[in-house]
Amino acid sequence: MNWIGRSLPRLEDPTLLRGGGSYVADRIGKAAAVRFVRSPVARGAILNIEIPPGAIVFTGRDLAAVKPIRPILHRPDYVAIGQPVLPVDRISFAGQAVAVVVADDAAAAEDLADQVFVDIDACDAIVDLELALKPGAAAVHPEAPSNVLVEGRLATADFDQAFASAAEIVTLELRSRRQSAAPLEGRGGVAAYDAATGRVTLSASVQMPHMLRTGIADLLGIAEAELRVIAPDVGGGFGQKMSLFPEYVVLVWLARKLRRDVAWIEDRRENFLASAHGRDQAFTVRGAFAADGRLLGLDADLRSNVGAFSCYPVTCGVEPLMALAELSGPYNFQAYRVRSRGVTTNTCMMAPYRGVSRPMLTFTMERLMDTAARRLGLDAVEIRRRNLIDAFPHRSPTGLIYDEGSYKQAMEIAVEAVDLPAFRKQQQTLRAQGRYLGVGISVFSERTGYGTPAYAARGMDIVPGYEIVDCTMDPSGHVELRIGASPHGQGLKTSLAQLVADELGIDPQHIRIISGDTDATPYGWGSFASRSMVIAGGASKLAAGKIAVKLKSIAARLLEADADSVTLGDGWARVSDSNQAIEIGALARAAYHRSHQFAGITPGLHENAVYDPGGTFSNACHIAFVDVDIETGGVTVDRFVVVEDAGVLINPMIVDGQIAGGVAQGTANALYEEIIYDEAGNLLTASFADYLLPTAAEIPEIEIIHLETVSPESVTKAKGVGEGGAIGAPAAIINAIVDALAPFGIEILEMPATPQRIRDQLRRAGVVSHG
Amino acid sequence: MAERRSIILNVNGRPHAVDVEPRRTLADVLREDCHLTGTHLGCEHGVCGACTVLVDDKPIRSCLMFGVQAEGKAIRTVEGLADGDSLHPLQRAFWENHGLQCGFCTPGFLMLAAGALQENPDMSDDEIRDLLASNLCRCTGYQNIIKAVRLAAAEMRTRPRE
């Protein structure tokens, strides 16, 4: 039986559905409660911290021996900034933890934290990206007088020639406002102290348990063996939980200092204030087009607000350098000049959020294509047809190698599926009645499953990428798979079980996946960057494949057949073209208990494998249909179609779930969610009442069509699919709004396109006057 | 520090004697005093609905109610939804239709739907969508949750539980 390709209900679900999940807040036990005292101002000098009498409170002075978090990029244009786990003198953003309180329970800790008085000499904060770049702007960190922490530049030799030969040059200034990944479960950790050994076990809601252990051990100056990190059930991450936060370092320090268990579960306000944000970017681009619509070259100035600090381990280069490297997306041009800067401000740190730069760069390229099409008298489909890559491997202007994809085909299938001519007719009819419908297309590539070469190319000091998997078949024929990846909602355990089930010819129910525990899994990089199915999946397949070889050898000995003629399936090893067969469970028992019979075969069934691929590109086309109410500026997404090519689907239901969830987040990026600071750096959107996640009322059904281009770059033939929904949706929706409002010639270059922003444009165009 | 009150809460048909501060929310009492951690806290300000439980058959945000206010009422949490080994039709439908990913919001959606369907088993598709817009999910994009509730509602209409 083939398990790959089946929409198997998830193995993870029965426990979660019964309320039996074990999230970090469910593991507090008798731990003392920890509460952080946070700065009410964005920038200033700490003058004094007054502690209520009798309270257990620690400040930066108490933790002076703890090293600051100081991620490194080996680039001459990178300025390394240290983030103290608790600052001694300087406040860098509103919400920064400045002291820590320990009490018997959370309510008491909160009461005491309110009584800690932090006297700060506040000064003007630098909040806005463009203001931070102005000559003469104050410096957020003295080490970076220009406020630029990382700057990449590149120009291809043919750049000037491309622009000189252009028939049309399209210039756009685009802006993506700041967002939060907003996982439903915030951050939290329980640090348990073992009095017998002095060892600390930190359970934390994180995506990268091994990296967290390395980071904390380095900062505290302890051996990694003195710390165990567990990522239990994690209530969503989307990138926000892959960085090392000061709070976790402080927790482990406290457990060791106080020799007791301590727990910190943040509230929603803390998550908004002090976890990590994403997306705050401003791009200026000039596209040089030939008269026939071909894009000849691109000139780009990319600015990313990276917040107050650099995130560990991926650094603040993650957004600017990805934008620089991948801006060309699915389009075929070579002339490219780019300058990309990461700019520090007195705001919450920027860290990866599902999509990382690509929602913004897809928005950029797709607005560019639509704008050029309009100026050159082409339609949106035709201009893309003339520019999409269709020869593989494709080499991008920055030297990225794209494996085979289906860029044009995906778009043609999507266009066919939605019946554009019929929509155009309906659009015309309704316009006459004062209703404004629009359609928008977005075509993009999603670089996924990349190993160490991609990270090394960024100059990262810590180079993630590979995955190690340990696979053991026990004497009963059941399998334990220990993975370094760290799933947090993706259903990876089910997908890996399907993959391994096919490799070994056993039932997925007989495969147990062990993840998220540094004591029980090989070193690995966790789950992020649409990598786990490709990389942990690849390593799982390779490790299980070694066990399969061994099982076949043992079967061949026992059945006196040729090992090449043995196949594994449905729990049996069978010799082809004969009726000879033996149960896999019997083979497993023999491998352990009668190993003396199998000379030359190592006893037992334990193998491991490492997979470190170069990377593979998924691709997709999104088409959005919207209805814009010109009176309110409100946008309704009526229909959303995705044609996605992520290679071979291991579990189609899970893949569709990833796409649909991503599109929902992308819709929010386009229309709703915005982290807003005032000029002084105070966060104005610190609750779900102010930061608007979409609900079931806003997200339409997502129609999904799959293509399955097989990539030689992935041993499972699967490509990554975790981020695509979030990458493509914003551009499709904004393009649809612009199409809906085409009669008024309105351009939208800023996300989210809130009712306020749309009405502002309509007012400027004289379409509506009141309000 | 603060005064405490001894109360008995009826949760999933069982009495729980707890000694709590009057300011302690029902969510905290359920999680920390009754050790029923299936009820989750996503925002503690009444928007996300992850902490939804049934109080006298009505879905409520347990982060917006004090534990002491629930004395004498029948409280039902996600732990009380399945009938022993057999999952509730809503739980089964969420499983079969991939209505959950990380699972953190799931108990809240299950209890929201369970309470609403108990009150009105004949909700239209639009009413179901409106109802489910009460809670937040960050993973699924909602459609599989809507589908699961529609299918479970249909099943519950044809085979009502005794």
In what order do the strands lie side by side in the largest sheet of chain B?
Answer: 2-1-5-3-4
Low-confidence stretches of chain A: none
What's the gyration radius of chain A in Å? 27 Å
Instruction: Count interface residues per chain for the largest interface.
Output: A-B, 59 and 56 residues
Oligomer category:
heterodimer
Second CATH tier, the architecture of the largest domain in chain A: 2-Layer Sandwich
What's the domain count of chain B? 2
Provide the gyration radius of chain B in Å: 16 Å
Q: Determine the strand fraction of chain A and express it as a percent band.
A: 15-25%
What features would you describe in this structure?
The complex is a heterodimer of chains A (771) and B (162). With 771 residues, chain A is α+β, with helices and mostly antiparallel strands. In chain A, strands 3-5-1-12-9-10-11 form a seven-stranded mixed beta sheet, with helices on both faces. In chain A, strands 7-15-14-13-8-29 form a six-stranded mixed beta sheet. Chain A has a four-stranded mixed beta sheet with strand order 18-26-27-28, with helices on both faces. The longest helix of chain A has 28 residues, at 532-559. The mean pLDDT of chain A is 96. Chain B folds into two domains: 5-80, Ubiquitin-like (UB roll) (Roll), CATH 3.10.20.30; 89-158, DNA polymerase, domain 1 (Orthogonal Bundle). Chain B contains five helices and five strands; from the N terminus they run ββαβββαααα. In chain B, strands 2-1-5-3-4 form a five-stranded mixed beta sheet, with helices on both faces. In chain B, helix 2 (89-96) packs across helix 5 and helix 4 (125-132) crosses helix 5. The longest helix of chain B has 16 residues, at 143-158. Classes of the chains: A alpha+beta (771), B alpha+beta (162). The interface between A and B is large, with 59 and 56 residues.
